[in-house]
Amino acid sequence: MSSHRSTTPLRTAVVGTGGIARSSHLPALRTLADAGEVELVAAVDVDMDAVRAFAAGAGIPHASTDLDATLAELRPDLVVLCTPPAVHRDQAVTALKAGAWVWCEKPPCPSLADFDAIETAERPGDAGPYASIVFQHRFGSGARHVRRLLRDGAFGRPLVAHCQTTWYRDTAYYSVPWRGRWATEGGGPAMGHGIHQTDLLLDLMGPWSEVRGMAARLVHDVETEDVSTAQVRFGSGAVATVVNSVLSPDEVSRIRIDCELATIELTHLYGYRNADWRITPAPGVPEETVAAWRDFGTDEPSSHLAQLRALVADIRAGRRHATSGAGGRQTLEFITALYKSAFTDTPVRAGEIGPGDPYYTELHGGAQGWAPDTARKEEAHA
């Protein structure tokens, strides 16, 4: 790790200047810029008017529609991808080959094949540069506290879990042309909406071993599903249910883990604070133990800022970030397995999907009624 990156701000370029860049990434980057951790040096977008307006508003000196030229001219240390998933592979590989770390919005990319291509472009070892995925729910103080207690065995064995992302999206939401399509949105609610809760569940529960999924297209005129469910078995033997929906007027995001000595619950919508967690002890657990469990410490909400702080610290220390490499791939592999199980009506085991499997290169796997060339035809004949 170069001393330059240990002592000076990470020169950062933002690629894609749409809603997520403005609402989530830019405020986080500005906070760390004020702390001297990063320096915003460039913004890139396919729309020159949009990128100029974004750069001017954020005080970013360089605005461009050419990522390659920006990388060659400015040599940023960190590239933040706020673009649609269909272009993540090419942009991430380009940035990695230019010697920059990558922080990539979810969904990470449309397939495991794309993810593996990105990982292949990384430099060997944990020091990087490497690509990381935006999975900010892992980085709030609540998740850190509960994860540590679970890892230490404080609650006993995890036994049964539930993971719920039940949101509501109306017809107007899906009137935007790129939504609801495999090629441009990357998937339905299992991929584009529930991915954060799924990622947090996997982070807390440990490696999954088997998934049995179901998916349906019940309301919206889309290629992807609008609801999915899954039964999951973990390597520890614990079992879980996962539900992802965009059909649910009473919106909630929830994780519940029943362990031998306690039930842990998290209930929120798009982000949590310490107060959104609840720990209920089993009968007989000493009060002082319960009090320690419920002491979450200083409240750091789950947010892009919380993850960006951790990412910058990892880059400076020459550590692999938790959502890079295998730590990011596990969630995409799980979602791929959910789709394969749902569309083939068979259980799928961890590690099963690799080169040569149709689901390795496309999440719909070419399945009749789900692949783009068959989904709408099937509806037309219904």
UniProtKB/TrEMBL annotation:
Pfam annotation, one family: GFO_IDH_MocA_C3
Lineage of the organism: Bacteria, Bacillati, Actinomycetota, Actinomycetes, Kitasatosporales
Superkingdom as given in the UniProt entry: Bacteria
SUPFAM superfamilies: Glyceraldehyde-3-phosphate dehydrogenase-like, C-terminal domain (SSF55347), NAD(P)-binding Rossmann-fold domains (SSF51735)
Source organism of the structure: Streptomyces malaysiensis
Domain GFO/IDH/MocA-like oxidoreductase: 144-265
Gene3D superfamilies tied to this protein: Dihydrodipicolinate Reductase, domain 2, NAD(P)-binding Rossmann-like Domain
A GO molecular-function annotation: nucleotide binding
Record's protein name: Gfo/Idh/MocA family oxidoreductase
Domain Gfo/Idh/MocA-like oxidoreductase N-terminal span(s) in chain numbering: 10-121
